[in-house]
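User: Sequence in, structure out. Go.
Assistant: Echoing your sequence, followed by the structure tokens.
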Amino acid sequence: MMKKQDQIMVGGQAVLEGVMMRSPEYVTVAVRKPDGGILLKKEAFQSWTRRFRMLGWPFIRGGVVLIESMVMGIRALNFSSSVAMEEETADKKKKPDQGKNTGKSGGSDLTIVLTMIVALGMGIGIFFYLPLILTDLVGATGRVSFNLVDGLFRLLLFLAYLFLISLWKDIRRVFEYHGAEHKSIFAFENGQPLTPESVKSFTTHHPRCGTSFLLVVMIVSILVFIPLGRPDNISERLIRLLFIPVIGGLSYEIIRLSSSKYGKQIAQVLVAPGLWLQRITTKEPDNSQLEVALVALKAALNEEVGSDVEWVQPENPGKV
């Protein structure tokens, strides 16, 4: 008989002083408040890949999951930042009753859409268009050489971006929560008790991490763009943008393959660069951060989280 942890795929994301967790049924966000308490938001969830069969097909589901993850990630970040803002103004305004719906919804749909458009635009401009300009300046002209240099610039920009933000103190705190998220998921996948003591021994480097996914995207994009040759004008450069869903779909399938066969030689080769990169994007968490990640994970699994956790809205407010 298959164990529960073998049947359920759980993912997550670190946010400001907290962690978002996603299971097939729920999305949860747990945030540590400055006063030491934990604020928890939980929403029912069903992926579009489960609602519509075609969207769950291989090479298509990757793009769908990516968009869903961006929407939920922005909502989670908005919620965690709103908690911090509420605490900063607590001495000026009466604190709301935490037993009711006191948390922010995470931003309106319009705000989320606009944020996604800006984020995608900046990402495409920095990591897809700027490398093309730099490659032109280098003078690479061959079909293979141009795309190898283009891919190298893309990878260097990505690594430089991660290194620079890792120097920011607040981002380091986020990376510690990122480590707590990974340790908690590892413990669940290995059938261990979901307590800080049990999860502490697990590594912060998880093969199914979004960081690994982005690195695989960088590598796959080189292979996809080589047949396109060297773009000679703006229209040919813009045509490359149409292949981003293809790149995302292929990268997602590679990540799924590597995580399902984690520990075997081929899988180790596939995930090794991403695991190495997580030395930058994950840091060792403390017990307080592990507790927050575990609250989010337990809530996503529909388990008891403890009476001391403050809920900001009903347990099942509706589908996401």
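User: And one key feature?
Assistant: The radius of gyration is 21 Å.
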